[in-house]
Design goal:
Blueprint (H helix, E strand, L loop, with lengths): L6 H12 L7 E2 L7 H8 L6 E9 L5 E7 L6 H8 L3 E3 L2 H8 L16 E5 L8 E4 L5 E5 L4 H5 L2 E3 L12
Parallel strand pairs: 2-6, 3-5, 5-8
Antiparallel strand pairs: 1-7, 2-3, 2-4, 6-7
Length: about 170
């Protein structure tokens, strides 16, 4: 018999089921807070971890979710060019108030409000990636080609050191 999911992980599971997806959230005994920890916990490459980073748009104040490969560092310049305004990393309070989740467990879906989502094209190199599922110990596997439909997000280059591909 499996243990019930924590409230935050269950919220992600419910969001997946509401979209008709048979994806399964897994809560693990070890931390998945960082990409390296998550990769070790699930036995995959660091690049297969979908890091959910939240940025704050400087002018509008809106939340921008960037789902990037665990092997990459997101370029604030590329994100800014894609959305048409400067961005900065969001602080923990901003992240929680716009997504409903704490840093280290922000999933690609199930947020308390709609957030503009950008998806790192490098994730498409993998047949399966692992995304956070609401807590620093919860993840779920997903085919990266499903992310745009799942999140309403746009795929683009967000990796630091690579020129962006234009605006939204």
């Amino acid at each position: 018999m499996t243990e019930p999911l924590s409230a935050s992980a269950q919220r992600v599971q419910d969001a997946l089921q509401a979209r008709g997806l048979a994806l399964q959230v897994r809560e693990l005994p070890q931390s998945t807070r960082t990409a390296a920890e998550a990769a070790q916990a699930v036995g995959c490459q660091v690049g297969q971890i979908a890091k959910s980073l939240v940025f704050r748009a400087s002018e509008s104040g809106r939340a921008i979710l960037v789902i990037t490969s665990g092997a990459n560092r997101a370029s604030e310049q590329a994100i800014a060019e894609a959305i048409g305004e400067a961005v900065s990393m969001a602080d923990p309070g901003f992240v929680r108030s716009h997504t409903g989740f704490a840093i280290g467990g922000v999933p690609p879906i199930g947020h308390i409000e709609a957030v503009l989502t950008l998806i790192d094209e490098d994730l498409l190199a993998y047949p399966v990636i692992w995304a956070a599922a609401g807590t620093p110990r919860a993840v779920f596997p997903v085919d990266p080609s499903e992310l745009p439909a799942l999140t309403g997000g746009r795929i683009l280059r967000v990796r630091e050191g690579v020129p962006p591909d234009g605006g939204i």
